Amino acid sequence: MAELSNAPKPDGEALVDIYRRMLRIERNDDAIRTAIRRGRLTMPYYSARGQEVIPATIGHLLTNEDQICTIYRGIQDMVAKDMPLKPLWAEIAGRIDGTCKGKGGPMHLTHPETGVMVTTGVVGSSMPIANGLAWAALLDESRRVVVAFFGDGASNIGAFHESLNLASVWKLPVLFVCPNNGFAEHTRYEVSTSVDRISRRAEAYGMPGFTVDGNDPDAMFAAVSQAIERARVGEGPTLLECTTFRFLGHVLGDDDFYMTKEEKDEALAKDPLPALRARLIAGGHASEEQLAAMQSDIEAEVAAAQEFGMNSPLPSVDELRRDVFEQEIAA
Amino acid sequence: MAELSNAPKPDGEALVDIYRRMLRIERNDDAIRTAIRRGRLTMPYYSARGQEVIPATIGHLLTNEDQICTIYRGIQDMVAKDMPLKPLWAEIAGRIDGTCKGKGGPMHLTHPETGVMVTTGVVGSSMPIANGLAWAALLDESRRVVVAFFGDGASNIGAFHESLNLASVWKLPVLFVCPNNGFAEHTRYEVSTSVDRISRRAEAYGMPGFTVDGNDPDAMFAAVSQAIERARVGEGPTLLECTTFRFLGHVLGDDDFYMTKEEKDEALAKDPLPALRARLIAGGHASEEQLAAMQSDIEAEVAAAQEFGMNSPLPSVDELRRDVFEQEIAA
Amino acid sequence: MTGMLKMNGIQAINAAMHEAMAADPKVLVLGEDIADREGGGVTGTMKGLSTKFGDRRVRTTPISEQAIIGAAIGAAMAGYKPVAEIMLMNFTTVCMDMIFNHAAKLRFMSGGQTSVPMVIRTLTGAGWQTAGQHSDHLEGWFAHAAGIKVVAPSNPADMKGLLLSCIQDPDPCLFIENGMTLFVPGDVAADQGPIPLGKAKVVAEGSDLTIITWSAQVMRCQMALAGLAETGISAEIVDLRTISPWDKETVLASVAKTGRAMVVHEAVRNFGPGAEIAATIAEELFGQLMAPVRRLGGPQCAVPFAKVLEDAFLVQPADVVAAAKALMG
Amino acid sequence: MTGMLKMNGIQAINAAMHEAMAADPKVLVLGEDIADREGGGVTGTMKGLSTKFGDRRVRTTPISEQAIIGAAIGAAMAGYKPVAEIMLMNFTTVCMDMIFNHAAKLRFMSGGQTSVPMVIRTLTGAGWQTAGQHSDHLEGWFAHAAGIKVVAPSNPADMKGLLLSCIQDPDPCLFIENGMTLFVPGDVAADQGPIPLGKAKVVAEGSDLTIITWSAQVMRCQMALAGLAETGISAEIVDLRTISPWDKETVLASVAKTGRAMVVHEAVRNFGPGAEIAATIAEELFGQLMAPVRRLGGPQCAVPFAKVLEDAFLVQPADVVAAAKALMG
Ligand SMILES: Cc1ncc(C[n+]2csc(CCOP(=O)(O)OP(=O)(O)O)c2C)c(N)n1
Ligand SMILES: Cc1ncc(C[n+]2csc(CCOP(=O)(O)OP(=O)(O)O)c2C)c(N)n1
Ligand SMILES: [Mg+2]
Ligand SMILES: [Mg+2]
User: Fold this and answer.
1) What interface predicted TM-score (ipTM) does this complex get?
2) Under CATH, which architecture does the D201-328 domain have?
């Protein structure tokens, strides 16, 4: 593994913004879970509660022009990338005002305006497409970078290998970001993965690879800033493994039978959200009042989005004939 | 890359046997090429002329129970594994006495009796199946090992990654053997591959990986013996990258426009066949007479095989209904 | 007659696996999350197997579908009978080379020297709002591939019996589970043994019209029976059970009797498996049909997320009734 | 009428690529061995492009089909028009997820926010003794997939015109080349422009029987014309050209005229693309046909190596004549 040098550090303002993104992710996640429990949303849901620092830091560091390709467990990535919550909620409620008119749902949320280009339900498949977007960024002579999110389990599938190799040979501006939460569905990392650190795999592609504490905003900020910089100046891709934990198991309803109480408790004790909050207060970067106001703003935004989404009209069945091709299919 | 320690060395007898296998490969290759040129065989042919040390050393070190999975450029691997030449010739001539009754042809030659389990025309696909054979070897509590051959170009395809990871996690008795001839069809190694040595990729799977001179019988003998030993005692797989050169391009008829005259001349000057012959004589391991006798025995075997193959009957069209399933399909 | 047990598809598949593994030490299981440590498979169909038969025979794999199918192929060639799980049918697309170019072809390409007696179990079906990449019925692709048998049971008894047959079969079999039927309980004989592959089953007798269907659509066609009866249509329902090889004899005999046929499947209609059946009926019973053969299948689009669209994507009982009425003229 | 050029399929495809790349700087090319340094593709169809349009727009790739299609998808979503080569059709099985679950579905799943205007060129066909893993015609799979168009031209003019249309199309297109037709010269108008997708072409007029066919089988059906004429059968040959969406109108009009139909394709007959066409004809022209619709396709096996078997695998002109005779009764 390569070493991080002269690591850039987030200032107070950056930390506050990262926290704001985390809180927006968490409040939105909480609202989704509540809506599902109350039967107001019917959808498979893969919460990323506990993993917020990763997308929040990335969202903070990316520009609006930068793009992401993410996965079924990706709503946090979109929220951190400033996807508006109203069409997000309309989408997960299966309504016509959804980003995808209700056709894609939570596993296929897309919003090119904010750079959310692909959400895939197929393990590994965010990566090959991210390369193509990055190729276009080079051809456009833009400074756009593309982030491909994927899980630790996804690092064992063929698409990972092909994508990292191609990105390296073509020096594509891609960040391969792997939140390593230690599990793929119910399968422990060690049961399926032959290397102690996924970042070690970067060497197989002549690419820098780093393992960073995905719950630590400083570590994330340093690693991501440098990877973005490399990508922007044409030095090519970086593999970032970000260690973290999924607090709520694989899919909502998961009873965590496959993990020990100790490891879960230990992870919960390291919840990055209250930790960063405490740090902001302690460091004088924000006051209790400011954070409370931030929280109520976010909650109001989430509530309004939910309201909007739930009240958006259902799509007409004619939608089945639309968007298959550019030209509508005849009835 | 790991270091080879206490490298076992081939004695004179071993070197003679390796040479014999190389010569059998080369004489057979020559006969096939001649037959194609004369229009007596109609088949796509991927010669491995120049790469003989690799299969010959492996064939020398494997037992009859050990198995191989190889590729379109794999006839040398089969010949080195003691596949009888008569059914081989009948197969490439598309005759009923062929190993595969003429149904498979050169890209799908199979001969389980000598451990030739799969020949695939799909890049990368020898490896996943080798794992399964190796899993069976473990379940059988046998000491069988399985060799998966694949090219340097194949190291960039997804199946490589998935196979090496699984083999490592399951500690399967597999040797992943990559004759790196510097080209994938017409594409140079560097154009497609992001790492300077394929063996470096072994680390990504917690597996030992070595780059050896594939034209040097000593280096090959040392590396292969140790990899076989590891596999037999349950220590799992090894990745061996064996540097070499294809003298005759990708497919017969290839005019080598994509390589420089210098690199080709340099490679030709290192032809491993005359080199080992000279060494056998110089080292007193064999006399000119012995080697001449060996050669005429082999040539007689090849001629008889060709004769047999060319005179074997054509398959009946009923064969299209046979071997699709165990039960013949009704006419 | 022996005792009947009530069980759902998960229990039926689980029972088949336990029996097959106990009866034949060569039977192996592999797939993602399938050992008990991981929960015995996402739907629990493999529960108890690793505990009972050990980690050597029951192996949880990485998320590496090519490696999964490759390992199954190799083990099968060496005399084992692996049952590999590809969690969802859409993921067969990441290992299609292993299935199509290898598992299905190795016996033929080797001239019968090797064989690949393996089972691929997979799950699919719309109805859970899992949308475009988790719901497709692709049995038509596999039926178009020579060298692999394709099974799509609709009820617990058939799931048990057909899975047992797939495991015993000397050739590769694809066993398709549908998420809407897995949880529906049904009667299964306590001693339910193998049910022959390639045999359809008449699940409702009728005289006006034959409906040929399979998997979850059997249930929806059965739900249409009341509506059909109301309009005075006596429909015969043939549960095809095995898609390849399919039971031409039973289908043609039924259509010869009723004079009308309709094929109903969840897969997209265009170039779907129903076309083979419809084309065959029209060809073999030329001049004997009272109406053209109708095909009901999914529209030409990905499976949509919104419930209202997903419902419209699926052929519903009401669609069956409407099509039948139209067919009766 | 403008001048006619004699060129083979390779030259026609090459001409289309040169024109498309010159006309639109957004057109890109990627695939194995496709730059001039590597020979401009295994059959030379991409010759000259990298020299003329540069290494940025014309990129040789690693042997990584998932990465190839993924790169094409991403670039297409960002406004480019990539033409990706999958060297042989059987290798679409290693990137089927990218094609089927992504390229074909992203427009729909995103509700039209994104689109994937890319072309996948691929080569296939029996006749070269490349056997089981290099010869399959899998157009039926792709035609069954919603969201991707499928084109299978039979002659140089169509190759040029249809490839131009595929490149201009706003959606993903699969362009299937057949190794037996690529080297056959034909007339191509000097100014041959795009030929609309979805339009069949009547390549021989007749009154007794309509033969619907495509790709290399057009040539074999044309070779059957003499034999048919000898036995007094006047056959109309419809070259379907685009398999999905297919030209129902032209086909039905022809069959309505002749009263008899036969579908001939190289793909395996079972559950093959011919079934859709046959089933549709039988359904739409119910009661108007003088004979059942026949389907001629490959037998249910992998493409064999031995010449004698490979010849038997393919539907030959003599098979067409024999089937036509039987159809005439
Ligand atoms: C190709 C493929 N195989 C299997 C699945 C089923 N599946 C969905 S999520 C998942 C686990 C992925 O784990 P990981 O990559 O670690 O991501 P995480 O869910 O932990 O975020 C699996 C096996 C899939 N979606 N795609
Ligand atoms: C999946 C797949 N993609 C492409 C091909 C076409 N192809 C056949 S051989 C070859 C080059 C392979 O090169 P390498 O792995 O280095 O082996 P070598 O031929 O040098 O022995 C290619 C691209 C194939 N057979 N399979
Ligand atoms: Mg994980
Ligand atoms: Mg090579």
Assistant:
1) 0.98
2) 3-Layer(aba) Sandwich (3.40)
